[in-house]
């Protein structure tokens, strides 16, 4: 179950020396065709890293032949020299595998503001280009090489009739709307046009990665790239493909959530009966961003007052005097007043559900977040040291 | 230096029994005139506590005779019964001091979703009404009675020629834009019309309390009330009065910031050369709300990459490739690339300054926040237990 499970893809990984630990830090994924259809989505942060600035140009024509990814340095805020490093890496990959550099997506992750050693990267590209292999092991090695503070690598495989979608992801914090410090590569051997790749990818990320909100921070490097080799010779309907891609993205998103830095709980916040899906997302996100609410969950405190206080900061349609809130299935608040005793809420496992009924329509949405813990503070205060 | 330092004001405090510790939890401040001009600002949270719903009506005519404040329970999300409690408290104050209930502002703070004991409050009102006294000690007692998780009481006195402004504040967390879990009473013996009170108060809170952003959470109970007794007989110019009121508000705001729950550092984020003051505030606030940035400061890590990543989420006018950032006076980033070595930044005291140059105009603003610490998480996970 990896990016090399679908037919038509090879991958490889190596330790190029960017990580001081000597762990693998460079991965290459190549689409051998016969089709090279592709689509990508990037961070919406205006301060974008050099690899994002480069890759945005690469993906414009809907054709991608390879994705090269490094951990150990984000190549962000490193100026023109950093951009030249990204460009040089793409050129080297192109040369080694016999394609044009303008079809090579580059992704980087790690600390920002640090210049990556260009020669280490180029030497690493030589190594991975020579080591490319098909089969699940190669993909698994690539998934490991893109880890930073991740405690486990993240992979997925969703199978359709005669075709499949493979995926890998990197991310363990800074998960926020419109993607965040998250690199995802998705591969499929289904026959899908670039246009359909784009439609399906946008639909799938909208209800998966875009609804993760671990700490409200938005990264500078996030990239999700889908490549379709067409090697199965089978053309699924766009609906079937989109549904499968969405399952793959939600699966990876839940793996990212479960590995968020220092979290004790995964929290699913579902807003019901909103006037619109937009309202439901805004309301749910306001709760996911409340440090007070998130600290309360860490303390296993079903503090529904903090839920209502968060809702009150939004523009979503509702009557402030008529809100219902449940935690782990117990309706602790009805009509904006206390209802079931909070001590009936049982916090036994890692998973916590918060349900809010806005009574303003029939739309709904779920946003996922984590609790705010001592370990979160510790890991993020020590990250660069 | 208290709310009873200006002429024309009396105050008292008592332990009404709302706090299980037996500490003082009820305060009354009375304006004895000859003028009763007043202005107030309230939380902009749509989910407002009962005392706010009541007091918003009280202040509409620009006349306030008294403010009664309790800690030990916010009377928020307690439904119609809670509103009746607020009303009953105002009625009892009015009866005891011989005014109309519609001139009595009520403020409450403490846990939300808990019903306050009405009889305890009414008995307490009887006690404080009988104990009203002029002079600084009475005001100091009132300032203590409104504390919740505050470690110290907050008071201020600003003197003009022949007149003065006194103030007290309560708040130790949840400090956010448009006020948050913050109760402030300001008194003056200057002769100021209700209209000028309003103008001066809005100008003063805009650049003080509204620019505190301790944890991005917005409370349901925040109230700032200014009462002008006119007892000095002196009428300052509106400019002079506004300037003095602003000094009082900034002083109290800095006291609130320094007492934020569990913080190790007070952080002043100044954005220079913005296209507008609005842009400067938006840019500064985005940094103040970044958990990653705030955790980095806790770890004494001058992580300017997280500053740029926060700026990138705003709509403020700037060139993402041309931003400068200084920490404690060291320009660690110029033109969005590394400049001075980060290890030149010295974090010796509690105060940290972050300066951002947007190079887009000549407006500026400062927003204050705290670092994100283990103690913040601990205190806010345990608050209701």
Notable characteristics:
6-stranded mixed beta sheet; 385 residues; 5-stranded mixed beta sheet; L-amino peptidase D-ALA esterase/amidase; 2 domains; homodimer; alpha+beta; Ubiquitin-like (UB roll)
Layout of secondary structure:
2 copies of one chain form a homodimer.
Chain A: E1 9-14, E2 26-31, E3 37-42, H1 50-58, E4 66-70, H2 79-97, E5 104-108, H3 118-130, H4 136-145, E6 154-159, E7 164-170, E8 183-188, H5 194-206, E9 223-228, H6 238-258, E10 266-274, H7 277-288, H8 291-298, H9 304-311, E11 324-327, E12 330-334, E13 337-338, E14 351-357, E15 363-370, H10 374-381
Helix pairs in contact in A: 1-2, 2-3, 5-6, 7-9
Enzyme class (chains A, B): transferase
Subcellular location (chains A, B): Cytoplasm
Binding site for substrate (chains A, B): 148, 170, 181, 261, 380, 385
Radius of gyration of chain A, CA atoms, in whole angstroms: 22 Å
According to CATH, what is the class of the largest domain in chain A?
Alpha Beta
Tally of structural domains of chain A: 2
Order of helices and strands of chain A: EEEHEHEHHEEEHEHEHHHEEEEEH
**CATH topology value of the largest domain in chain A:** L-amino peptidase D-ALA esterase/amidase
> DSSP helix count of chain A?
10
Distance between the termini of chain A: 35 Å
- What summary fits the major beta sheet of chain A? 6 strands, mixed
> Which pair of chains forms the biggest interface, and how many residues does each contribute?
A-B, 62 and 62 residues
Question: What percent of the residues of chain A sit in helical stretches (DSSP H or I)?
Answer: 25-40%
CATH architecture of the largest domain in chain A: 4-Layer Sandwich
* Averaged pLDDT of chain A: 91
SS-derived structural category of chain A: alpha+beta
